Amino acid sequence: MTTKSTTKATTATTPTEDAGISTAATQGKPLETITLSHHLNIGGTEYPPGSRIRVDSDYARRLRRQGYVARG
């Protein structure tokens, strides 16, 4: 069962700010900064389109394949 959280991202309110998403699994892995093209919910935090977030390179690649990363 999945629960929906309505928490908004407070650190990524403008497209030029980084959310800095990091978990124990991403420690030591290279991080990439990406700009979202769609709403995305990560760990119960909602990021609106245009938010810049830092995620590990494998997750960034998956998001690109699914169309969540803005081109440009």
Could you list some keywords that capture this structure?
72 residues; alpha+beta; two-stranded antiparallel sheet; 25% strand
Low-confidence stretches: 10-17
Strand content: 25-35%
Number of domains: 1
How many angstroms separate the termini? 37 Å
DSSP E strands, number: 5
Classify the helix fraction into a percent range.
10-25%
SSE order, as H and E? EEEEEH
In the sheet with the most strands, the strands line up as 1-4-3
User: What's the story with the biggest beta sheet?
Assistant: 3 strands, mixed
Average pLDDT: 78
The assembly state of the depicted protein chains is: single chain
Shape: globular
Question: How large is the radius of gyration?
Answer: 12 Å
Which structural class fits the helix and strand makeup? alpha+beta
Count of separate DSSP helical elements: 1
Please explain how this structure is put together.
The chain is built from 1 helix and 5 strands. The longest helix has 10 residues. The protein has a 3-stranded mixed sheet, with no helix packed on it. The chain has a two-stranded antiparallel ribbon with strand order 2-5. The termini are far apart. By secondary structure, the protein is α+β, with helices and mostly antiparallel strands. The chain has one domain. About 11% of the residues have low confidence.
List the helices and strands and how they pair.
Elements: E1 7-8, E2 31-35, E3 40-42, E4 45-47, E5 52-56, H1 57-66
In short:
By secondary structure, the chain is an alpha+beta fold.
